[in-house]
Amino acid sequence: MAVLPPGVSAADFAAALSQMATALGADWVFSSDDDLGPYRDSFSPVWDTARERRAGAAVAPADVAQVQSVVRIAARYGIPLFPISTGKNFGYGGPSPNVNGSIVVDLKRMDRVIEVNDQRHFALVEPGVSYFDLYRAVQERGAKVWIDCPDPGWGSPVGNALERGVGYTMGHFRDHFGAHCGIEAVLPNGEVVRTGMGALPGSQSWQEYKYGFGPDPAGLFAQGNFGIVTKMGFRLMPAPEHYRSGLITVPRRRDFVALVDHVNYLSDSFMVGEAVYGSPLASLMGRPDFLALATKPGGASDTDLDAAASAAGLPSWQVELQFYGPEAATAAQWAYARDRICSAIPGAKAVAGEHFSLPPTPDQLANTTQPYHSLIRRNGAMGVPSLGIWKIVRDNGHVGFFPVLPRSGEACFDMQRVMCDALREFPLPPFFSAVTAPLYWHTFAFQMVFAPSVKRDDPAHNAMVDRAMRKAVEVAAKHGWGDYRAAPIYQDAVADTYSFGDHALRRMLESMKDAIDPQGIIAPGRGGIWPRRYRESRDGRTSA
Amino acid sequence: MTRPILWLIAALAPVTLYAKPAPAPSVQRGQAVFGKWCAPCHGAGRGDDGAPMLPGTAALAARYKGAVPAALQSRRDLPAEALQVFVRGGIGAMPMFRRAEVSDADIAAIAAYLRFTSAGARR
Ligand SMILES: Cc1cc2nc3c(=O)[nH]c(=O)nc-3n(C[C@H](O)[C@H](O)[C@H](O)COP(=O)(O)OP(=O)(O)OC[C@H]3O[C@@H](n4cnc5c(N)ncnc54)[C@H](O)[C@@H]3O)c2cc1C
């Protein structure tokens, strides 16, 4: 047995595991090195160093009662637990815990799709249900609903939503936690709670009204450590009849400001799905002169960038728009969007893209016949889970920093310039430059991406990546941009930046943590929230 | 009873070409496990958005440069012991898989399935 949790004796740890084996069956308690290898973070930049976070054991309960048993046994011995649903949180820590020696509660075996409802458009699932599983269940039941999935289909609605993960259809479904409706969780004392209408015995509207009455604690379970979620409901989009896409380009750099404002209007009016921005000038980044311009210290001037664009005969920016609904409605919405933008921005051009009735044929799903080079990943846009995205994974994976910024062109220019300058010292590809486009994943916010790759056999590279990650978090925060999600090794650094009122939010959450989880057994440290007994060890520093 | 078997044979047609005796239960289990856990990355079909291959198949094509087939279903050199190494240890961009996801018996079944699918494949 390799790693013990802080302050827990080997004898107590062994006693707890043997009681868990009695409760779950010995086959579902894992403690050999061989068993625990797959609970390491295969994307870890601190692999095999003292900073790597490693599980001490793992258990795989089959139902809620077994989860309760595990929690009660852990409480008896003060052993930290780390719940995972499908454990595919790559880029953000994989299945690995915040605290060394934690027992990972692997919920993969709890994989029932409890309900798919295509009259009232929701699903209720257990944590081990993957997007592939849910998609299959929808197909097998012939239900007329779409799921909204992240790029990799092997993750779970529950795990992904609890990380506030994102997908690619309409705005209110892309925010996966936002689209949840009803949570069941096992609390640190072993009790089971249900949020919203689930708290009202006999209610039939658990997946339709997420608030119920009184304060809604659902948010405490997302990026939090207040319980182990055992069921979760999700709102689903009624299967649309038709899909339509279109491309709009604008010639000058500053045109981006107006373009973003128009697309915000379309998006907030629920007329478009994910708007996918890009800069055609990115195709010039292989040219040293253009690379130097796009990454010029202090930022290149609009005039110079416009001159480069017109010399190359390229527009400065583009956006791909997507429409879902009845065919005539999608046609009218595209016509409206095209006319609105083209009449407002001189030189804007619109190209109609593919449109087809749904569901897509295999060829339409394969996305090979757009009349222009498209940045849209069609599977995501169709809510069809896949692992095709793994083609972008380099080396041994990557770590991710995705700062949230306002949905404005000006904010994008600021982030390009500030982050480009801040990360210049690191020998990495230019994640931030004058051609970096915002990602429009969450319903009402932009993000940009910094995701340097990790090389397991090159610790010096990984140490550089680690320094770059920490600097990115720090510099972004100075400008009001915060990360939306982070691996355990970065959660304290990110939580530190959300410091309004001398960390008033963290102090409030930690007071609640102490009250609800006095022994600090559920995922201590997750989201930067440490229970009293571990607070001294917050990221190696003493408590705030 | 015949429908699933016909479907199975049809699904294997691209690699088997010739009729075969009905596959053993371990092969059928292996097909299900492979379909769920391996095929999304290592299947023989095309990838997303114009990619000619799925990512795992593309990675093996790049690694072996044709010395062995890129699609696992055509590989004859993957007994359960070899699969254990890759499934539990991961490699490159491929992470490790936990016993709660893919059991040792599942891995043995995948090996049986790959023996079956690769029997008619050219090297
Ligand atoms: C190439 C690539 C592309 C990606 N694309 C996307 C994308 O498009 N969108 C996106 O959102 N992400 C993306 N990711 C990140 C990640 O792979 C997914 O978010 C994935 O869905 C998360 O893993 P999971 O669903 O298995 O969740 P899990 O790993 O099971 O859970 C995530 C975390 O939530 C907590 N948790 C899980 N279950 C419970 C529970 N039952 N109770 C309490 N807490 C729990 C744990 O802290 C756990 O670590 C991508 C990653 C890569 C490498």
Automatic annotation (TrEMBL), chain A:
Ligase as UniProt keyword: no
Alphabetized UniProt keyword annotations: FAD, Flavoprotein
PROSITE patterns linked to this entry: FAD_PCMH (PS51387)
Keyword Flavoprotein applies: yes
Domain FAD-binding PCMH-type positions: 51-239
Matches recorded under Gene3D superfamilies: 3.30.465.10, FAD-linked oxidases, C-terminal domain (3.40.462.10), Uridine Diphospho-n-acetylenolpyruvylglucosamine Reductase, domain 2 (3.30.43.10), Vanillyl-alcohol Oxidase, Chain A, domain 4 (1.10.45.10)
UniProt-recorded name of the protein: FAD-binding protein
Annotated organism of origin: Novosphingobium ovatum
TrEMBL record, chain B:
Residues covered by the Cytochrome c domain: 25-118
Region forming the signal peptide: 1-19
Pfam families found in the cross-reference section: Cytochrome_CBB3 (PF13442)
InterPro entries associated with the record: Cyt_c-like_dom, Cyt_c-like_dom_sf
Keywords, ordered alphabetically: Heme, Iron, Metal-binding, Signal
The protein's name: C-type cytochrome
Species annotation: Novosphingobium ovatum
